[in-house]
Amino acid sequence: MARSTILPVLALLCVPQLAIVGADLSPRAFKPLPVGSITPKGWLLKQLTLQAEGLSGHLAQFWNDVMASSWIGGGGDGGLHERAPYWLNGVVPLAFLLKNAGVEELQPVTGIYKAAWGNDAKSYGNKIPTPIPVNVMAQVEKYISYILSHQGSDGWLGPAMDPKDGGSYWGPSNALQALYMYAEGSNDPAKFTNASQAILLHLLEQKRRMASAKLASWSAARWIDMALTAEWLIDNADVGTHKQDLLDLIGMLHDQGSDWDQWFETFTGNAGGHNVNNAQGLKSAAVYSRYNATATYDGYSMRELSKRRMAHLDEKYGLPSGMFNGDENLPTPATRSPSHGIELCGVVEAMFSYNTMFSVHGDISLVDRAERIAYNALPATWASPKGGDMWAHQYLQAINEINAIKADPHVWQTDGDMAETYGLEPNYGCCTANFNQGWPKYASMLMYTAPDGGAVVGSYAPASAVLPNGVSLDIDTEYPFGDVAIVTVKAKQTTSVYLRIPAWAVNATVDGTKASNGTMWVGKAAAGTTKFTVDFAPTIRLEEWDNGAVSVHRGALMYVLPIMPNYTVYGHHFGGADMSNDYFLVPTSKWQYALDADPRAPSESLTFVQDGYKAGAAPFNHSGWPTAVSANMRFVPSWAEVDNSAAPPPSSPACGAGHSCGPAEKLQLVPYGGTELRIGEMPLASYPGLDASRFENAGSAFVV
Question: Residues 659, 579: one domain?
């Protein structure tokens, strides 16, 4: 086995910049691997399989907006025509990931079938569908084949839309992303050409329409995803004489679309506070910078703006899961209340935005954030009595969530009273369709290639890949449940290797040698096989929030006090008794606790427990957690419930000096993503020498 040769640590990769707008696209700092390059294993494969065994693999069998979508000639998915494209945007990469791992057909689901919308005669008459196996790839082929074979003579893909409607461009946007991922993953030149040319014809028709029907509504807010597709064509496909048309289209999209640069700098202007728009808009500066590398706003480069918008959201709306408050819209007035909530659509869009931003800029803080959201916020929005599966999700999740009920009144401002319940489509069905991209697109962006052809690990999970140049890259790890990752590189010649060292990994080493946190560690893999051992050596850390509340973290995971729930089924849609149900959850254990820990030395009073991930288990199960933190907690009887949610955490210190608390109790804090009800922000109790004044201005900045 060849050993690694350490090169100087580079915080960022230098990327040449172009000065002429429209001449070409600037290269990304790190280029994502084509979809179909990654093979998941270990807990990641289990998580993706659970997704296919849950809603992702079955929506085409029973949910009208996918099963009978207008995109395949049915009557479902009307209006925006966005739900089948949302679903495809996730199941296309899911299909290739599972196929690579040898998981192609899953057992059929049997059980009671009910549909809240009744029987659609065009779809299935009055018959209960016969249980059929789940073959995600077969589903993908069916939908993609129909879409491609029904392209309009003018090039338009999907249901016919009014060419004078400036909002009509959004509906096909996710279908275009699904098509280019299908083109990459198919590994078939004919399929690649067919899909890429269909995308090109559609975008040329969109450009023609945009000359008079300018972007409006969702299309104006979400122009970035259309620009990203145009950039993909320029980077990867034969566009003939239309390269300049595509470059011009990117410029039109930017000029007609919402001004996200102004919005994230001032939170004023035409972009607005819709939370999913904000999650998608995060990447606008990164995407636009490839078209105009010298663009600035208020003196800041696009790269600087990308980091600033993350910081500005954190300051006004930030949450310890890495997300921001946004129940349909960012709250007014701005609040970082841990009870307020964030929409699932925002979670998956933010993950993709941050990974895209990292790919373009090469900035470690951006991929750090994508990972924090993926390993905390994404799994936390799922629940079931047996735990760990992906049959029932929320519309809104909260850091401090003590109920999941029909909440009237409620602390969130925009969504309805069912928004925190778990089920098929609580509050609104967009997240039922859009959640599908979360894990598959994240898994597909674990690894990259560098401009010098080197192998890049951006995020850590058990997986392997073959790079376009033939280099193979394998990550053997239980991370984030384990502390070590072994990265194996097989190459025919000496190859550069770039390994991300997270900002929190202040004690990290590579092959036993100190590696600077918050950088890309750079080494060399010799011809043959080279192994790199990354030891992240995480420690328990506390992050301070408003009024001295704290959240507990170790490595990539956030640890919370789980609240034991009681489940009540209020609806059933598909499968057996524990499959597609709608649930109310109420607490059966106390939740009003303060953390008895010294913020100056949390590891002295908090004990990490690592049982390890058990092969075959649900990674984010709701019991038998692979890791935990043992903590002394003290009951705070004055911590009240307000509007069916936990009131803001009492000011720290919450015990002593006239504040009555219970005796110390030894309790377990568990991974946030493995809970359905929890307290994730809590006050400090008291501690010898704790100075209350140090918390008077706490929470002014997000601590990574």
Answer: yes
- Residue that finishes a domain, picked among 535, 554, 588: 535
The C-alpha R_g of the chain, in whole angstroms, comes to 25
* 584 domain-assigned: yes
Is 108 domain-assigned? Answer: no
Same domain, residue pair 499 and 627: no
> CB atoms < 10 A from the CB of 528, how many?
13
**Residue of 93, 91, 117 whose CA lies nearest to 38:** 93
Domain boundary among 471, 505, 535: 535
Q: Are 179 and 198 in contact (CB under 8 A)?
A: yes
In this structure, are 482 and 613 located in the same domain?
A: no
Rounded to an integer, what distance in angstroms lies between the CA atom of residue 352 and that of residue 350? 5
In a domain, 500, yes or no: yes
Looking at the predicted structure, is the pLDDT value of residue 576 above 70? yes
pLDDT band with cut points at 50, 70 and 90 for residue 78: confident
pLDDT tens column, 162-204: 999 999 999 999 999 999 999 999 999 999 999 999 999 999 9
Nearest to 342 by CA among 365, 367, 317, 366: 317
Together in a domain, 496 and 557: no
- Cα–Cα separations (whole angstroms), residue 30 to 10, 376, 445, 507: 14, 25, 10, 25
- Is the domain of 621 the same as that of 583? yes
**Count helices and strands in the chain by DSSP H and E runs:** 20, 29
User: Can you give the pLDDT at residue 692?
Assistant: 47
**If DSSP codes are grouped into helix, strand and coil, which group holds residue 296?**
strand
Residues 513, 558: one domain?
Answer: no
Instruction: Dig out the tokens for 369 from the structure.
Output: 């954030």
- Kindly compute the dihedral angle of the four CA atoms of residues 85, 86, 89, 91, in this order, to the nearest 10 degrees: -100
Q: In which domain, by residue range, is 647 found?
A: 542-695
User: 141: helix, coil or strand?
Assistant: helix
In the chain the first and final C-alpha atoms are separated, in Å, by 36
Sheet holding 463-466, edge to edge: 38-40, 463-466, 472-477, 484-491, 528-535, 509-510, 513-514
Q: Rounded distance, CA 14 to CA 9, Å?
A: 13
Rounded to whole angstroms, the Cα distance separating 228 from 290 reads 10
**Burial, 322: exposed, middle or buried (Cβ in 10 Å; 0-12, 13-18, 19+)?**
buried
The Cα diameter of the chain in Å comes to: 77
* The total number of structural domains that make up the chain: 2
For residue 159, whether the previous peptide bond is cis, meaning omega lies within 30 degrees of 0, is: no
Mean pLDDT of 628-640: 97
DSSP H or E segment with residue 441: helix 438-443
What phi and psi, each to the nearest 5 degrees, are found at residue 217? Answer: 55, -135
Query: In this structure, are 548 and 688 located in the same domain?
Result: yes
- Examine the domain organization and report whether 480 and 599 are in the same domain: no
Cα–chain-centroid distance for residue 123? 32
Strand partners, 3: none
**Are the CB atoms for 67 and 74 separated by under 8 Å?**
yes
Q: Contact 339/645 with Cβ under 8 angstroms?
A: yes
**What is the distance between the alpha carbons of residues 295 and 242, in angstroms, rounded to a whole number?**
24
Share of the chain above pLDDT 90, in %: 87
The predicted-structure confidence for 289-326, as pLDDT tens digits, reads as follows 999 999 999 999 999 999 999 999 999 999 999 999 99
Q: What is the mean pLDDT of residues 511-527?
A: 98
Q: What is the DSSP letter of 7?
A: P
pTM: 0.94
Residue 229 lies in a domain: no
Pairwise CA distance, residues 249 & 243, whole Å: 10
170-186 vs 83-100: helix axis angle to the nearest 10? 20
pLDDT in tens, 321-340: 999 999 999 999 999 999 99
Q: What is the CA 634 to chain-centroid distance, rounded?
A: 34
Domain harbouring 483, CATH code: 2.60.420
